[in-house]
Hints:
Bound molecules: zinc ion
CATH architecture of the largest domain: 3-Layer(aba) Sandwich
Strand content: 5-15%
Order of helices and strands: EEEHEHHEHEEHEEHEHEEEHHEHHHH
Radius of gyration: 23 Å
Number of helices: 13
Shape: elongated
CATH class of the largest domain: Alpha Beta
Amino acid sequence: MLTWPAPQIPQLPGRGGPVRVRDTSSGRLVVAAPGQDAGLYVCGITPYDATHMGHAATYVHFDVLVRAWKDAGHRVRYASNVTDVDDPLLERAAATGVDWRDLAQEQTALYAQDMAALGVVPPDVYVGAVESVPTVVAAVEHLLAVGAAYRVPTPDALDDGLGDVYADLSVDPDFGAVAGLDAAAMISLARERGGDPDRVGKRSPLDPLLWRRERVGEPAWDGASLGRGRPGWHIECAVIARDGLGLPFDVQGGGSDLVFPHHEMSTSHARLLDAGHGAATHVHTGMVAYEGAKMSKSLGNLVLVSALRAQGVDPMAIRLAILAHRYRDDWEWTQDGQAQAEQRLATWRAALSGNGGRDAAPVIATVREALADDLDTPRALAVVDDWADRTLAAAAQGGDPTWAPGAPGLVARTVDALLGVRL
Ligand code: ZN
């Protein structure tokens, strides 16, 4: 798929240190990319309800990881997908009376516009589920061949005996290591989040769908020996990550509602496709609520980036409102939070519009230190706040003996390069 235009990232003097993040599986802080190359896979959108604040927060926070990695001298390779065919998309299209392709195309375009406005560095590898069908088919054929998958008869008259294909989780001794949940919790979450634990004919309730045979009224593609159908969601991400980054790769990321079953399953698939390798570290962003509840179309409490932009809200203020929260915390979008971000942006712009300011070197060093410490963006913002406040106070007095003529330019480049906030 085509990405959006990449923002220019200014060069800064010196270099950031190794970036630590919290690994969901172990709960420990780990150096996210121990080598020179840094590989990141962040699960993309299913293109409906794009781009609500929960999506935006995830992609903005992982964008800060990409920027911190680049600043630390890594060669970054970032891969993502768009799940442009899946049950929720088809259900939404049917419910609203639009063609699923039109819905996917329109929402994917809106997402790209929102990401460009928010200054998110686009992925190097950006693949749609539809585009991934031939490689998914080959991967599922491989899993069948090695005994890691099996066929389940479909009740539909279109079936010619091949059936749907499911992964056999019993062949993966490490299954469950990502989320660390007990069986009852896993079954409950699978039922809630798109799994089918009650499907008749499966060997185990948690076994996930790899290939769904064509059903009446559903889109389908050539599946070679699998028969016409479409990919399951987890195998789609496993294959796109493998092909885009190679296995193992450094970080698999997404919202915390993806830990189980999505990341547990896609990591298991990746392990079975490549002799024991998946993502080394799992990193998850918190959920964003609005008016007291997690954002969802059914509750009617979605805050869309495009709607805020249409109201004239500066995308950089949206970015600052997101970065005011630690990536892994749950938080709520509020009018107050938006107003504080707009005020912060105005203060920073005022401080940076002068021709001198407080020394910028400590700002660069401390912002780098904050981001290297588990992407502590609230602390990074506070460092810039402090510089801006002291610069404005000194400017009101006509400057002072520690005034540095080039400081505003250097702080602006720091904020742009590391936080993605263009001033
Ligand atoms: Zn995914």
